[in-house]
């Protein structure tokens, strides 16, 4: 079986999700190629698998965004004429910043008309996708979870050494946000809630690249009055991911809105307990991994929720490793291949 994917392998440094998915397909005899117009035009594939088609809608230049949207739709038209089946994995239901609402509304309507099927990363995500896009109810839909990241990143540093590398006292309680910094991830509210904690030995680290870059100015203003809040607003190299996660007692992901979260699976891959809103895929991850590893909350994040979660993270007995068997890439890639076969039949 020949599969074309956008993206397939090239984004491994930024987000290894697709690399892990497609690399695991090799042992099943499935060949996956990186999407390109020349490959689409010159070679016959069974399925074209699309991820994050909305990314170009975050371009500030609306003409650039429109040109990219039109180009994708024309390529989809060509693919359908060649009897190439098109599958979309629903990572998001909208562009994160929603800079061009009219363009985006037009794009989604045209994009959905050209699909042969879709994959959701959770049952709740499928329901949300069908509510947002009723057209999806008329297409074959499948639920295949997001896989874990265990083994993808170096993980050999001890917690004491990780803390020493960051200059953190051995007596401190460490709260961490890790991942790309975007407005919807609600980090201003996290800092404001954290500042209300009275314990001088509790620290908050926020690590990740801000988008847009101007967002860091807002966070710096919020953090300026509390030396316990440490900002590391940069892309974290692959070998440094372990330093932040192994230093943490608790990972907090205080999203206002969330459909799926690779950051949650990343933290669990490093066996860090997480505090997350009880929404969509996160509630399902809690059910699969267990309440000893995933704690949820409703509403906005508060200092009381952070304090209670810290006590839970430090005081709850749990296994040495988070149980992530349900998120094995070998199994998930097989499920994805079964989707391809179903849509082809």
Word description of this protein:
The chain is α/β, with parallel strands linked by helices and 345 residues long. It has two domains: 2-146 and 328-344, Glycogen Phosphorylase B (Rossmann fold); 159-326, 3-Layer(aba) Sandwich (Rossmann fold). The chain is 39% helix and 16% strand. It has helices at residues 17-23, 37-42, 62-81, 101-113, 123-132, 159-166, 187-195, 215-223, 241-247, 262-269, 281-289, 303-315, 329-344; strands at 2-6, 31-34, 47-51, 85-90, 117-120, 141-143, 173-178, 202-207, 229-232, 250-252, 274-277, 294-297. The strands form two sheets. The protein has a six-stranded parallel sheet.
Any chance you could write out the topology, listing elements then pairs?
Elements: E1 2-6, H1 17-23, E2 31-34, H2 37-42, E3 47-51, H3 62-81, E4 85-90, H4 101-113, E5 117-120, H5 123-132, E6 141-143, H6 159-166, E7 173-178, H7 187-195, E8 202-207, H8 215-223, E9 229-232, H9 241-247, E10 250-252, H10 262-269, E11 274-277, H11 281-289, E12 294-297, H12 303-315, H13 329-344
Parallel strand pairs: 1-2, 1-3, 3-4, 4-5, 5-6, 7-8, 7-10, 8-9, 10-11, 11-12
- The ordered H/E elements are EHEHEHEHEHEHEHEHEHEHEHEHH
Shape: globular
Which CATH class of the largest domain applies here? Alpha Beta
Please estimate the helix content.
25-40%
Class computed from helices, strands and strand pairing:
alpha/beta
CATH architecture of the largest domain: 3-Layer(aba) Sandwich
How many DSSP-defined strands? 12
Number of helices: 13
- Please give the alpha-carbon distance between the first and last residues: 13 Å
The low-pLDDT segments are none
**How large a portion of the residues is in β-strands, by DSSP E?**
15-25%
The largest sheet has its strands arranged as 2-1-3-4-5-6
Cα gyration radius (Å)? 21 Å
How many discrete structural domains? Answer: 2
- CATH topology name of the largest domain, in short, is Rossmann fold
Mean pLDDT over the full residue set: 95
In this structure, how is the largest beta sheet organized?
6 strands, parallel
């Amino acid at each position: 079986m020949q599969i074309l994917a956008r993206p397939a392998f090239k984004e491994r440094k930024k987000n290894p999700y697709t690399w892990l998915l497609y690399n695991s397909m090799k042992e099943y005899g499935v060949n996956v190629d990186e999407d390109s117009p020349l490959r689409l035009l010159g070679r016959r594939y069974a399925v074209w698998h699309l991820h994050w088609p909305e990314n170009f809608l975050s371009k500030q230049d609306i003409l650039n965004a429109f040109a990219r949207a039109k180009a994708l739709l024309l390529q989809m038209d060509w693919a359908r004429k060649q009897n190439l089946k098109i599958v979309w994995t629903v990572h998001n239901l909208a562009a994160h910043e929603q800079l061009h609402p009219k363009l985006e509304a037009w794009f989604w309507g045209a994009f959905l008309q050209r699909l042969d099927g879709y994959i959701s990363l959770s049952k709740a995500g499928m329901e949300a996708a069908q509510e947002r896009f009723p057209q999806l109810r008329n297409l074959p839909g499948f639920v295949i979870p997001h896989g874990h990241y265990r083994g993808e990143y170096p993980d050999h540093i001890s917690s004491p050494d990780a803390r020493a590398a960051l200059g953190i006292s051995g007596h401190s309680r460490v709260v961490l946000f890790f991942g790309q910094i975007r407005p919807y991830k609600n980090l201003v509210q996290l800092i404001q809630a954290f500042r209300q904690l009275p314990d001088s030995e509790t620290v908050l680290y926020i690590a990740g690249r801000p988008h847009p870059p101007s967002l860091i100015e807002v966070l710096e203003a919020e953090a300026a009055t509390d030396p316990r809040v440490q900002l590391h607003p940069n892309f974290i190299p692959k070998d440094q991911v372990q330093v932040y996660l192994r230093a943490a007692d608790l990972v907090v992901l205080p999203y206002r809105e969330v459909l799926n979260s690779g950051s949650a699976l990343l933290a669990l891959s490093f066996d860090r307990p997480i505090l997350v809103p009880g929404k969509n895929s996160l509630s399902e991850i809690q059910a699969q991994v267990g309440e000893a590893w995933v704690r949820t909350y409703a509403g906005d994040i508060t200092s009381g929720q952070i304090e209670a979660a810290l006590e839970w993270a430090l005081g709850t007995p749990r296994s040495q490793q988070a149980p992530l068997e349900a998120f094995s890439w070998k199994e998930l890639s097989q499920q994805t291949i079964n989707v391809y076969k179903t849509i082809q039949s």
